[in-house]
Input
Amino acid sequence: MNRDRIITLLFLLGSLIYPILMRDPYYMHMAILIGIYALLAISLNLLLGYTGQLSLGHAAFFGVGAYVSSLFYLNLKIPVWIGMVMALIASGILGYIVAKLSFKLRGAYFVIMTIGITEVLKLVGLNWVDLTKGPMGLTDIGAPTIHLGGLGTLDFGDKIPYYYLILSLVVLCFYLQYRLVSSSYGRAFISIRENEDLAESVGINCYKYLVIVVMVSASIAGVAGSLYAHYVSFIDPGVFAFFISVNVVMMVIGGGQGTLMGPIIGAILFTLIPEWLRVFGDARMAVYAVMVIVIVIFMPRGILFYVTQLLNLRKKT
Amino acid sequence: MIFVQYVINGLIIGGAYALIGIGLTMVFGIMRVVNFAHGEMYMLGAYFLFTFFTKMGINFYLSMLLAIAAVMGIGGIYEKAILKPLRRRSIETVMLSMIGFSLFIQNIAMLIWTPVPESITSPFPLTAYTLGGLYFLPQRIMVIFAALFLVLLTHLLLKKTKIGKAMRATFQDLEAASLMGIKIDRIYSFTFVIGVGLAASAGTLLGPIFTVHPYIGNLANLKAFAIVIIGGLGSFTGAITAGFLLGVFESLGAGYVSSGYQDAIGFILLIIILIYRPTGLFGKIGQRR
Amino acid sequence: MHIKSISLILFVILLFTGLAFGADPVKVGVVYPLTGPIAAAGSYQKAGVEIARDRINAEGGILGNPVRVFIEDGANDPAQSVSAAEKLVTRDKVDVMIAAWGSSPTLAVSASVTKKYGVPHVVDTASSGKVTKLEGKRPNPWLFRISPTSQMEAEGSEKLLPKLGFKKVAFMLVNNDWGRGAAQEFGTVIQRTGGSIVTQEIINADATDFLTQLTKIKSAGADSIIVTTDQAQISLILKQYKSLGMTQKILTTGGGIVPEGLVALAGPEAAEGVNIITFFAPWFPETTKIPQEAKWFADEYLKRGHAPKGFGESFRGYDGMKIIKAAFEMAKTTDKEKVREAFHKVDTWGLSGHIKFDEFGQSSPMILIVQVKGGKPFIPEFMRQ
Output
């Protein structure tokens, strides 16, 4: 077993016993948010980390997932699980449309296109009052339950079961990410990131692979949105906020783009950082902004990379 | 008649949009940098005018010039300190540093001027002139003329001056330009400063019409992005056309459809145009990155 | 000067002896928007909370203990407000909450924090009916609201609207729960009083240009406009309305608008004649049952260097703190269940009128209409009766 595997397994073990160590509900709340953002970060990492396409509109998929799942639950009273699957499908379809629309272009065009689509969806959420209740938002979005036959019902409305639900999905997506990037698809993605023209010239259909990666990425983001909605039990068009998209990009870059563990480390850091910065009061967001600049300039390969480098240096001396 | 009034309202706002748009498109076209802080430069322009004119009582036109100069100074410092070292770095690094800068300026403005909205007293009369049943607002007439003047001035700068020619050469072919002995660093600094100066001047022009608070840059940013993409990234003519087009479409949309979707119109236009003409109205085919 | 400094020293000594005797402070957690587009309102309310805190502490605190206020930023966003409230309740262990400004974050905090942990929760701003009454039931027994719902506001002004001569009404409303709620409730009231709604214009929260909407209202033949949005947007609407030479009567709702704000932002010319619904009129302390305290508050607020534009929001924080003090003194303990019961028994007067909660935890503040006349606040004749 190599070192990376040991670290990953230790990490998993730590996450499994975390609720036993930390009884404090505030820490459980933060852990659940970290889990939701980890899913989002993994999904963006597939796109940004492995194919090199920057999306500043991941909130679009997140928000559509949140709305679709909540609306299915509230209007049709179907089990939450089916709503989550619907969220996955709907976000995937949106991903397909977005990819078809925007991958005629790359770079700045693509980035602004993703911002634009998110803005349009936000305005649809605000104005399609009959469906989305507009700015009033959707309330009383229930949590999922499992009937255990004679043993009663497992209610995910409590923090600890919900934590384990999210943890299992994070593990699943982490594994999915691992399998995907180590498959022939993954090699195609990376070749697109490194040099698209070269990839095209050796017969890789870049367009096709990009559409696939956006669809997978969007579906995972949709599930994250659905999990968010059923946890907070309230959503409004704020789920399409630009800040969510930016913070997720920061998670991927700050943690280490194109690495397996990077998005998870990033999700932990960038969920907690805005909370830690509360000590700065009104200057909170200004400090956050400085951190963003410092990290992208001085740590473009992610904190994980610099930490391991530091450890290796110490070993040598 | 009401249709004509809508179109006039739209054209006047469109002039300001065009002014915001050309600054952004210039910076992108020449430097390949999406200036996410463009709207914040607009906001700073308005705030500096507020400080110089309303608070300190300096002459209105002098205050405008001072405000624009101050913002150009800030832009220049940012370009030298952050953008220049990032020149060879990836697009997402530059974009995120710009986003960080925009968040920073927004929140610093909130700490300096507080989030309380302020108003810049306008030296122009409030009541509109009427002509054949149509209304023309004095301050806005000033805005449209000033905007057209600045657009023309920028155009002359690009076409007639030596540095303008060098800028165009850099825009067309960076390597050839640097081989010909054009100092790229200087061109970049100059472009960025002019770009933010145009945003700031839009801020000083619109500031007295609207109220000033730290978040007015958000909307300006979104509009500027839509305009620049619709017109074609880097296209001067495109930004001007798209600016006026957007103003008119928004006004008509708010008048005949629903004002709730007013801010979506830019992006809906953008999506439609990108389906049929991926590089925008005036973008060069093949120039897709 | 001497008296002032001596009283200050005495106050400090008092504070320290309080701490020296190990007095456990009563902790109030506050979630307001301190960053983001609504930050201005949050900062005014924060000022109100601080004035109340200092007054309460100078008068000996609550139950003999000093009051400590923990203010967190919720940015008027549901997720951020929930995180801030979670922190206040579980980390800082606050005894009571004031949260979270708009209806969306308030509903979120109510459902997933204060109800879950059983913490008394004072709402001082949100106007959505759903906060206190959801499908005929009270959603959160721990929540007490001192701000009126849009429905109460509309019904409270039902008698006044005919006196203002509102017949063919146009609405201009900001695209959020508050704006849409107000349009709905005021729409019902207008129709009940025999008026009609000519057009309804939705404006986005960050929009700045309203010429098109105003042109539309003008050509629709409205005789009056009800505007629901914040002070900055209203002043833009007023300026552009004046430019177009419009003469329709204007009424603003929501209680956050004050004549000083409109005069400062839109200029005296454009603000002239506007009717403003307010819940606290600092210029006319006689409209409250506690005129001395109202006058003292208005003076103190200005003395601390806060903008008069913020009068319309600042009183909310003050009243929130005031009602908290009343409830704790009645409960004679900080035990949360006892405090919750005490909230129901509280019967007092705040800056915004009578505070007494019904079975849904809703109080009914006063609803006043003031006008701008000669650039100054003015109470119309029909309000004086």
